[in-house]
Specification:
It is a single chain. By secondary structure, this protein is an alpha+beta fold. The strands form two sheets. Strands 1-2-3-7-6-5-4 form a seven-stranded mixed beta sheet, with helices on both faces. A five-stranded antiparallel beta sheet has the order 11-10-9-8-12. β1, α1 and β2 form a beta-alpha-beta unit. The chain starts with a strand and ends with a strand.
Amino acid sequence: MTHEILSFLSLPSTNDYLKERYDELLDGSVCLALHQTKGKGRLGRSWEGNEGSLLFSILLKDDKYQGFAGILPIMTGAALLKTFESYGTHPSIKWPNDIYLHDKKIAGILLEGVFEQTQQAIVIGIGINLNQEVMPTDLPNASSLKIESKKTLDKDIFLTRFLRNFDFYLKGLLLEDYRFMKHVQNNDFLKGKTVCFDYYGENLSGKALGIKEDGSIAIEKIDGTIISITSGEASLKK
């Protein structure tokens, strides 16, 4: 895939930039911003970042991506795992779309669809804590790759490595090759831990059994029943 890189000092949101202009941009376009004033995380959270962050979004606008929206966040997470590993670190993926290193969040993924009666495009937003030396006090569970690895990373090189891994996994996914799932399952942050989750509006807890081939997570409830969660969020029980 060819990636046209659109780089900005500041934007309200890289996801919104691509969503608003998807029809005039090429498939695979990447929007990169040093700072976001209205950056978004999952479930309405904000992710504004700073100069130490790597903030970008990828546009997928071909019909061939139809039907893969549910698995794309996991696939993107696998590409991030592989990229972080190239720097000698060993992160894990917290279902459905966060990357953790040493029990600290260092990256997040937000997928959004563009709809005009039918789905027209998919935008994948990625925020990485890359070179921050100090994290905000209101984010006690967050860290950066620099803090954890003691190294300063070149953003351009990191992005190039990530896009290479992303393209490799995406090419396989379109051929229904899910081999990246093994990598994800071997680096599952929640597996074996007690988690809290929302199940059809009911707050429950149970043991995470692992991420399944379809991208859902299997959880054993307190009564022994095993269910699969396909959307939402599972958090460690405090």
